[in-house]
């Protein structure tokens, strides 16, 4: 955010319901509500000609927002390490991850959320579990801090939202230039069943695959990611 502020842009971010400083509501933890909440913020601030950038679950949120609410307000979109079009294995998505993977995440969140929110960033999220990788303790601690600010039910229900929401039709309806960014060493959202499929569905999609980059590349590889984002925004 500071990078784009320093380049003269207005930058707006929101805490998803049940996360950060947003209300700890008991329901609405699904992609439809995520997108509708984003639309409410956009309308309240009367944002126009905006570039919507979403990472991971946020990429799914951007996809649904732009498809359903963004007409006339969105200039471009960026899907970074995004969950679209759908993560779980289904008859129409045979290369997806088995439902048992997401059941395991739910069990971890319900069983010991604090430990889960340490182990994920310390391991696969940033690729700190790879040979020779140097874990960044501040990054791990900040991920834990942000996670523990949110509500347990929001996190538990959100697993279904990011894994089982089918965004195929949303992708096909988006008509603004869309940049799809993904690392090929993403251990959270495998790029072959995400970015490679998404760009085929988009009308005006551009694909950029980063060799060796992890899921959390926007943090650990910020220098390159920010420059590529800026070039796309300016193009």
Polypeptide structure, described:
- The protein has helices at 2-6, 31-45, 57-69, 99-122, 137-149, 152-164, 168-173, 195-201, 217-220, 222-234, and strands spanning 50-55, 74-80, 178-183, 205-210.
- The chain is α/β, with parallel strands linked by helices and 235 residues long.
- The chain has one domain: 3-Layer(aba) Sandwich (Rossmann fold).
- Strands 1-2-3-4 form a four-stranded parallel beta sheet, sandwiched between helices.
- Strand 1 (50-55), helix 3 (57-69) and strand 2 form a beta-alpha-beta unit.
- Helix 2 packs across helix 3 (57-69) and helix 4 crosses helix 5.
- The radius of gyration is 17 Å and the shape is globular.
- The model has no long low-confidence stretch (mean pLDDT 97).
Element layout with pairings:
Elements: H1 2-6, H2 31-45, E1 50-55, H3 57-69, E2 74-80, H4 99-122, H5 137-149, H6 152-164, H7 168-173, E3 178-183, H8 195-201, E4 205-210, H9 217-220, H10 222-234
Parallel strand pairs: 1-2, 2-3, 3-4
Helix pairs in contact: 2-3, 4-5, 4-6
Number of strands: 4
- Binned, the helix content reads 40-55%
CATH architecture: 3-Layer(aba) Sandwich
- Give the helices and strands as they follow along the chain: HHEHEHHHHEHEHH
| CATH-derived topology | Rossmann fold
Strands in their spatial order, largest beta sheet = 1-2-3-4
Gyration radius from CA atoms, angstroms? 17 Å
């Amino acid at each position: 955010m500071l990078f784009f502020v320093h380049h003269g842009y207005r930058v707006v971010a929101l805490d998803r319901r049940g996360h950060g400083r947003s209300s700890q509501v008991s329901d609405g933890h699904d992609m439809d509500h995520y997108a509708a909440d984003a639309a409410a913020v956009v309308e309240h601030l009367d944002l126009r000609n905006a570039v919507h950038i979403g990472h991971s679950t946020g990429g799914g949120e951007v996809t649904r927002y732009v498809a359903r609410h963004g007409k006339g307000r969105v200039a471009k979109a960026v899907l970074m390490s995004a969950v679209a079009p759908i993560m779980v294995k289904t008859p129409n998505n045979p290369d997806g991850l088995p439902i048992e993977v997401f059941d395991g995440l739910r069990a971890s969140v319900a069983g010991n959320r604090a430990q889960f929110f340490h182990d994920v960033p310390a391991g696969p999220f940033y690729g700190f579990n790879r040979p020779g990788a140097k874990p960044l303790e501040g990054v791990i601690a900040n991920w834990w801090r942000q996670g523990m600010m949110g509500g347990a039910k929001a996190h538990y229900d959100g697993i279904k939202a990011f894994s089982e929401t089918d965004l195929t039709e949303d992708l096909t309806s988006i008509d603004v230039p869309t940049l799809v960014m993904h690392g090929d060493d993403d251990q959270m959202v495998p790029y072959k069943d995400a970015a490679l499929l998404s760009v085929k569905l988009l009308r005006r999609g551009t694909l950029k695959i980063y060799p060796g980059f992890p899921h959390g590349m926007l943090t650990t590889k910020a220098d390159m990611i920010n420059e590529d984002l800026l070039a796309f925004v300016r193009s």
